[in-house]
Amino acid sequence: MAANSKPHANVAPSAGSLPPVAVAVAQAPPVPAPAPPRASVYKPICDPAPSREDAAYCQAAKAAEAASQSARWAFGQFVVGVLGVIAVVLTLWFTKRAADGAAKAARVAEKALLDLERPYVFVHGMHGVEALAQDEYRPRIVYNVSNNGKLAARIDTVSIACGPGNNGSFPPLRLQDRHRLLERPILSADEQRSRIFHELLGENFISRGEVNGSSGIAYDVDDGVIFQVLIEYRGPSGQSHETGQVWKYDSESGGWCELADPHHTYMT
Prior knowledge:
CATH architecture of the largest domain: Sandwich
CATH topology of the largest domain: Immunoglobulin-like
Oligomer: single chain
């Protein structure tokens, strides 16, 4: 029996036959090998350099640092230049806005001055159709023209339309070559020309009525007859202006009524 208890050669002992310490060592994980040491960065001594190689390295490092610093300064100058360009553009924009505002204010002031210091020609006092003995009973439409502005007016043209108004249409304007205003075309400030007449020669929209003694002959006028006066003039500044005035005969009221028509009754 003693011979059977000996271990056989070349046979590994079983775990049950090993002591506890040997079993624990056999089951422990392998210990990892330590990592190789990292190579340290070589930092040469530059002041003073102990060798020629160190001196060359230090010189190259200083040159690289100077180039990097120069690049940073160049970038800073570029940023400052861009900001300067933006500031100049903004300054020019604000300057243009200010100049436009000043020019607009100047135009408004000039227009206000021209509107104040200018002639204003009015056509008013329309008397209707008259046929007086002093005019040899010739039928005429009489009206007044005045300049209510602060400056004199020079009359350029006078046009008159007189005739029936059909379905809202107006008779054509006719240029008056021998108008009384053109005989003395300068109309001074606050001057009025009274009893300016337009002769009616054979018009079929009026009919002769009865003689009213010394007041002349009365004429009947067809309903809807239009009388329009358009005067073109200018002031001392040379700026052109227009004044238009329209009347319409109303048979129901038996008289002439002013028409508030912006296309024919206006002033510029």
